[in-house]
Design brief:
three-stranded antiparallel sheet; about 210 residues; 10 strands; alpha+beta
């Protein structure tokens, strides 16, 4: 409505009851961009998750922004947590091929043959995942030293490459007794496969426990 203010100047006003009603309406919806910022993901990634879940939220009449109910926002939060858990425990085939130094066509065959364990879940890409545990198991088997040494061992350089740790960090783990140096090695340090497997398992467990709970 238009009404004069205290100085007689015409001003545009809205009824307080309408403002309060609209504020209450806004409190019951969440903008998709705001939720993307809260979750720390890109808008397009969250939009794909929304489509993946079959959600069709409302759009603002003028801005065309998607607005979510609290139930829809909670569903997207749950989907984001699921995808994060998937990426922690499993990896896409292309990533596995790089880690194992294999061709992309070889990795799917290894999954079919049971050398790698397929994860039953996927993300919005629809790509296949294999568990990181099976990738580590496969890598250790492929990296074991062949010869007369009775202890299964993995070369020092392979440990650095696969784990992403620096050489000094691996040496520190060996000195601390976390990783065991294989006896009888020739021409370079090697780590026992058993100690490496145990450390990888503890690292994954510690990483999951360190994540904040919602």
């Amino acid at each position: 409505m238009i009404a004069p203010d205290d100085h007689g100047v015409p001003r545009r006003f809205s009824r307080l009851s309408d403002v309060l009603a609209y504020r209450k309406q806004l409190g019951n919806v969440i903008r998709l961009p705001d939720l993307a910022g809260e979750l720390g993901v890109r808008y397009d990634e969250l939009y794909r998750s929304m489509r993946h879940l079959g959600r069709r939220p409302a759009q603002h009449a003028t801005s065309n922004e998607f607005t979510l109910t609290r139930q829809e926002a909670d569903a997207l939060r749950g989907e984001r947590d699921r995808v994060r858990a998937l990426h922690r425990r499993s990896a896409k085939l292309a990533e596995v091929a790089r880690q194992l130094k294999l061709s992309f066509t070889t990795v799917p065959l290894m999954a079919i043959n049971g050398d790698l364990d397929l994860d039953p879940e996927t993300d919005t890409s629809g790509a296949k995942f294999v568990t990181r545990t099976s990738v580590e198991r496969c890598w250790i088997l492929r990296s074991k030293r062949r010869g007369c040494t009775p202890t299964a061992a993995v070369p020092f350089g392979e440990v650095v490459r696969f784990t992403g740790l620096g050489p000094r960090a691996v040496v520190d783990l060996i000195r601390a007794g976390v990783l065991e140096e294989a006896p009888g090695h020739r021409g370079g340090c090697e780590v026992t496969a058993s100690s490496l497997t145990a450390w990888l398992a503890e690292s994954r467990a510690g990483h999951d426990m360190a994540r904040p709970k919602r």
